[in-house]
UniProtKB/TrEMBL annotation:
Pfam families: Peptidase_M29. Belongs to the peptidase M29 family. SUPFAM superfamilies: Thermophilic metalloprotease-like. Keywords: Aminopeptidase, Hydrolase, Metal-binding, Metalloprotease, Protease. Its cofactor is Co(2+); Zn(2+); Mg(2+). The keyword Cytoplasm does not apply. PANTHER family: AMINOPEPTIDASE (PTHR34448), BLL6088 PROTEIN (PTHR34448:SF1). GO terms for biological process: proteolysis. This is Aminopeptidase. InterPro entries: M29_Exopeptidase, M29_N-terminal, Peptidase_M29. GO terms for molecular function: aminopeptidase activity; metal ion binding; metallopeptidase activity.
């Protein structure tokens, strides 16, 4: 039997996260391992008198293209891919990989070329989302592969996912609205502030936020959610930072990442594992060495590292930063084919001051 929480999940995504309206075109993408959730989302979309299009994804196809495709094939933009970013009213995507290491043998240069060819699509997607022309949400269905990455049994990982998404609550939407209210309180305190300073293990970094807007991430985009984020001033980041957890992307793990910034750009970078991949990613284009995002994690229901950024960047008491493309709605103007999130855990001895006032101590918000 299908877990009854699947129907609640679909109803929350369609009715709250993107609030599908009659007549809208809705693209539903997801790995075939998530068939129960995909079907439930499809049914909910129909019930709201909208127009769903199901786009099932088979695990490993991206690796086939990246390993064996010609340069022309890597550069080619699939018309369906373009439609999802430039044409639909609503995009709902369900991650459901059955092998998270499928891309590990792909040459970094080929991955960079594939990303560069899609810079325009990423900018169109972000621009439409910022203007309100596109509503989107992203979630993750628990598979064996994700559970293995998290060092958990699949059933235990599924329970972790349900709890992180607040689907174990009697009214998940009410729970997310409570989360939104707490995050709005933090945003109100940050309004008009000018500079953030982080201090922690091998970390002393200042980030200018003059004139930038904070966004309340409350389950209406990523699901689960639980963060507030902005776009740093492009030339206003200085100092050094050591990221606590590995970057896990494109089938690779980059461990012990350390970056030094001067005038907003990464001027020195190192990693204990896959350093060459880190450097090559930072050299993808002119914007890849600049921060496009700075965020505070606020979901204290996520308290462990899973090697999946959808959950890990939300861990309550951490911060994360993304090199590369920024979100226009924050005021960021940084453009790049890259958007790499890196997490700094401040729950044991870390401190953040904003304009000289205490904001976070040992992973707890003190304002």
């Amino acid at each position: 039997m299908t877990d009854p929480r699947i129907a609640t999940w679909a109803r929350t995504l369609v009715g709250y996260s993107v609030a599908v309206k009659p007549g809208q075109t809705v693209a539903i993408q997801g790995g075939v391992a998530a068939e129960p959730l995909l079907r439930a989302i499809y049914r909910e979309t129909i019930a709201r008198d909208a127009h769903p299009t199901m786009l099932p994804l088979f695990s490993g196809l991206g690796a086939e293209l990246l390993r064996h495709g010609t340069d022309a094939q890597l550069d080619h933009l699939d018309p369906v891919e373009r439609w999802v970013r430039e044409g639909v009213d609503v995009s709902i995507r369900v991650m459901a990989e059955t092998n998270t290491k499928a891309l590990s043998a792909v040459e970094p240069a080929r991955q960079a070329r594939f990303q560069q060819a899609r810079t325009g699509l990423m900018e169109a997607f972000m621009g439409r989302a910022a203007s309100g022309a596109l509503d989107w949400t992203l979630t993750l269905f628990p598979t064996d592969a994700y559970a293995q990455d998290a060092d958990m049994a699949t059933d235990d990982f599924a329970e972790f996912v349900y709890a992180a998404c607040k689907l174990d609550r009697p009214d998940p939407v009410a729970a997310w609205r409570e989360q939104a209210a707490e995050q709005e309180r933090l945003i109100a305190w940050l309004a008009g502030k000018r500079e953030i300073r982080l201090r922690g293990l091998d970390t002393d970094l200042t980030v200018s936020i003059v004139g930038r807007r904070w966004i309340n991430a409350d389950g209406t985009k990523n699901f689960p959610d639980g963060e507030i984020f902005t776009g740093p001033v492009e030339d206003g980041v200085d100092g050094h930072v050591r990221f606590s957890y590995p970057v896990v992307t494109a089938g690779r793990e980059v461990h012990d990442v350390r970056l030094r910034f001067h005038g907003g750009r990464v001027v020195d970078a190192s990693a204990a594992k896959n350093e060459a991949f880190l450097i090559q990613t930072l050299d993808t284009d002119a914007g890849a060495r600049t921060l496009g995002e700075f965020a505070f994690g606020t979901n204290f229901g996520i308290d462990r590292f899973t090697k999946n950024i959808l959950f890990d960047e939300k861990i309550g008491g951490t911060v994360h930063m993304a090199v590369g493309a920024g979100y226009p709605e924050t005021g960021s103007v940084n453009r790049s084919a890259v958007h790499w999130d890196l997490i700094c855990d401040l729950r044991d001895g870390g401190a953040i001051d904003v304009d000289g006032e205490p904001f976070l101590r040992d992973g707890r918000y003190v304002v």
